[in-house]
Amino acid sequence: MPIVPDEKDWTWVLTRPCPECSFDASTVTPSTVPGSIENMLPRWRAVLRRPDAVERPDDHTWSPLEYACHVRDVFSLFDQRLNLMLDSDDARFQDWDQDRTAIEKDYAGADPAVVSAELTAEGKQAAESFAGVREAEWGRKGLRSNGSEFTVLTLAQYFLHDVVHHLHDVNG
Asked: pTM for the whole thing?
């Protein structure tokens, strides 16, 4: 059964803590981003080792496996967006239809062991990319097609919230 798409604009997490997962973007600094990513990887691998990782808790919620597939793709997407922002002045990137991606990539039918390895590799790549950002680059700008403007720092904050929030969703 398809999940009802989440059409909320989550950029509000850049200005106030998330009441669901307690993520506070104001605590994210350039020096904390790579370590935050690395510290979440073992927790995601543990989630994917659970016997019930493939089971949806209800008809309206992704399974832990589907959330992990999403996070794997978030790592890849935000690594691409980061590099675009570093390489292009006033970079522009399209909105991402995460729900269409979940169907097209068959998140529900994925192999948890394969996803674990892919998520780890993509997470390490994203951490490495954020670790390579020079101090002068954290203010570089990018614009999402819906008009949301990001700096490299706010992109990192927004991205980290997604990964933290989904760990909360799966009790990771």
From this structure: 0.92
